Amino acid sequence: MGFCGRKVFCVLAVSMGILFLQAAFSPVIADPQEEEVDWLLKIRLDYPGLGIMDTISLRGPVDLKWFEPYPSPLFPPHLEVDSEIDTIRLRNRSGVWGRDIPGFPIHGKGFLLEPEPWVESFFDITFEIHIPGRLPNDTLSLFAPVRTFGMAHDWPPFFDKFETPPGMPPAPLHGRDGLVAAMLLSMEYEMVPHYEPEAHLSVATAYGSEVAIVGENGMIHMSAGLSGDYVAEEAIFSYRHCGDPGPFAPFHVDMDGSARIYSTIHPEGTGDGWSAYFDPGSEPFEGQCVRFEVALLVPPYGIFRDTVMAWVDPT
Question: What's the whole-model pTM score?
Fold first, then answer.
């Protein structure tokens, strides 16, 4: 073999070797896995123009996507996980909401090792937020990604705390006019499994029967609640006759949830809850079956309902 032939052979061998190493340490291209998780986010903000600071907690569902783990070329023997967060819908009871910025995907990378990783996983976070109590006519955007770190023990990294590092330089949040309206001082969050909220309605009935109890005030008391760590903003109580295919007719809207909370053991427990009083009157409810419904508004998850059948006899 001449010099030229040997040279070509060596170049091909080196090229094949490089391709082999890249293939060995690169993720296999495949469809990502995806799971809806709940995001519990806490941020600290400074409003230079207002001279105040805020700590805001938000919760809501996000879509987490990730590819299969692969051997880390930089931190062996860790496995790397390429990940992305999108479709963010966060809220709290003060009317603050947060969401993803269209065109600004949130990328992250996990580093996994049994029994304990020594390399921190991270996400580069951007978001939009509306704070009606501070800036009611504006929406603030964090355009420059802020890196958050956490030790992940699995993927999704459920219950693993991610946060900005101590001494992080404040990051600007821009208003709709493009000017800086607030500064992000710190951020921390964790992801938890998502479970759909379940509404529960309880109507006071006589022991061992489905006959609704009519109190001394001539009213039938009922209470409602929500399973899981979710917060409803209002409860709509409605009724219709059993067997009636028509819509439920609302008779009360509870806006503040000031009643005692629903309990699976007793109709009332401790804490905030939702309740209503139904006036059976006389006609046409005397001795009739009525189906009651509660509809709990739970932003940003939706409306969750439960129904209970009771025999209503005001006499």
Answer: 0.71
